[in-house]
Amino acid sequence: LSKVEEEIGTLRQVLAAKERHCGELKRKLGLTPLDGLKQNLSKSWHDVQVSNAYVKTSEKLGEWNDKVTQSDFYKKTQETLSQAGQKTSAALSNVGSVISRKLGDMSSYSIRHSISMPAMRNSATFKSFEDRVGTIKSRVVGSRENSTDGLHSPSGAGDKPPQDNAPF
């Protein structure tokens, strides 16, 4: 018994040395533990695919697939869904065209045209904005006209009155 146990110990030492040597060879060859895992998974998947249970299940599922795809119900459903898809695609295409056209139309409007639109001009927000701009304008222009302290405008216009190009 002691001689067998001694041989087992020796074999363990030899096995450990061989495993270290194998690891060094793998490292030198550029093989990583991930490569080993991939190889194990590939082999396991191959074993599953050639197993009796997998082969029989695949055959049965193939038969069921053939029966289902050949049924009238499946064919009618497939046709209906195909038509619905075509109609939906056409409708979405039309919606996209309309949106593109509307956005194109909107981009051709100028700001002055938008401001002159009655619905916008009559809104409370626009009237409030217009009143504030008018008040600010009258303060700036009024103080410039009434100024007697000899200050000149920053533009160097001198005694020329400022041009009024504002839309208000």
UniProtKB/TrEMBL annotation:
Coiled coil: none annotated. One of its GO terms (cellular component) is cytoplasm. This is TPD54 protein. Residues 137-168 are annotated as: Disordered. Keywords: Coiled coil. InterPro entries: TPD52 (IPR007327). Belongs to the TPD52 family.
